[in-house]
């Protein structure tokens, strides 16, 4: 497989446009709420990206709550530990939420939160209705990002160990629908890394925003409610 290069440094410098993206979304919220398909209190959990916590997803979670969903934070603090360490707690939470609502949970994961969402769905498909990822690198390893060294330092395992772990997990396919939002102007994660050729029920949707702005992008706020309501075949 051809190595995936990290985003061009110019794109990384352009991540500062998140301020303008957030401002545009805040101005557009009344119209977005009016035009969004309504939920019926279905459970949704939103997972944050690397080195962020539930505060980073507050705007998106609050919006989804306002349009009719029962929305949960991930509640596991800053997303910085090795991925597999989060799976037991995630599975326990999803079991409780699924039991409470008598239905599987919809997962929305931003960047590394999307990777964790996919792995939870891989492990316990009966607890997950669907996965929506936003700028989540599913191939290419940390080398496909502009923060690879930072990830390696914080997580404490080598790129080789990360790749080996993911290869071992990929032996078990993901059996729930996955929808992936990606941006060619992403300055943190190479857009090619977000495309998954191995998951059968997978669809990629291109958007145009920064990586750090995906949690507050007008396009994301318009698309995610549609994807949460989409009729999906298993």
Q: Could you characterize the architecture of this molecule?
A:
With 234 residues, the chain is an alpha/beta fold. The chain contains eight helices and six strands. It has helices at residues 9-13, 18-35, 58-66, 83-101, 112-123, 148-155, 159-169, 218-229; strands spanning 43-47, 70-73, 105-110, 128-134, 178-183, 202-207. Strands 2-1-3-4-5-6 form a six-stranded parallel sheet, with helices on both faces. Helix 4 packs across helix 5 (112-123). The longest helix has 19 residues, at 83-101.
For the structure shown, list the relevant keywords:
single chain, 234 residues, alpha/beta, 6-stranded parallel β-sheet
Task: Describe how the helices and strands are arranged.
Layout: H1 9-13, H2 18-35, E1 43-47, H3 58-66, E2 70-73, H4 83-101, E3 105-110, H5 112-123, E4 128-134, H6 148-155, H7 159-169, E5 178-183, E6 202-207, H8 218-229
Parallel strand pairs: 1-2, 1-3, 3-4, 4-5, 5-6
Helical fraction equals 40-55%
What are the secondary-structure elements, in order, as H or E? HHEHEHEHEHHEEH
Mean pLDDT level: 92
Count of β-strands: 6
The strand line-up of the biggest sheet is 2-1-3-4-5-6
Global Rg: 17 Å
3D shape? globular
For the report, how would you describe the main beta sheet? 6 strands, parallel
* Distance between the first and last residues' Cα: 29 Å
Which residue ranges are poorly predicted, with pLDDT under 50 across at least 5 consecutive positions?
none
| Count of individual helical segments | 8
- Share of β-strand residues: 5-15%
């Amino acid at each position: 497989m051809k190595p995936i290069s990290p985003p061009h440094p110019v794109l990384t410098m352009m991540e500062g446009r998140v301020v303008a993206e957030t401002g545009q979304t805040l101005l557009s919220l009344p119209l977005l709420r009016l035009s969004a398909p309504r939920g019926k209190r279905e459970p949704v959990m939103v997972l944050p990206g690397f080195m962020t916590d539930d505060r980073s997803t507050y705007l998106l979670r609050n919006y989804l709550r306002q349009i009719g969903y029962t929305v949960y934070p991930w509640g596991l603090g800053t997303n910085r530990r090795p991925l597999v360490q989060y799976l037991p707690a995630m599975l326990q939470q999803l079991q409780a939420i699924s039991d409470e609502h008598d239905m599987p949970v919809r997962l929305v994961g931003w960047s590394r939160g999307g990777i964790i969402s996919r792995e939870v769905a891989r492990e316990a498909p009966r607890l997950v209705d669907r996965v929506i990822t936003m700028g989540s690198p599913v191939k290419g390893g940390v080398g496909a990002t502009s923060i690879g060294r930072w990830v390696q330092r914080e997580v404490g395992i080598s790129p080789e160990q990360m790749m080996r772990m993911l290869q071992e997990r990929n032996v078990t396919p993901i059996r729930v629908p996955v929808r992936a939002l990606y941006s060619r102007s992403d300055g943190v994660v190479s857009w090619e890394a977000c495309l998954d050729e191995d998951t059968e029920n997978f669809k990629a949707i291109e958007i145009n925003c920064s990586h750090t702005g995906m949690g507050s992008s007008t396009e994301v706020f318009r698309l995610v409610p549609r994807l949460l309501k989409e009729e999906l075949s298993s």
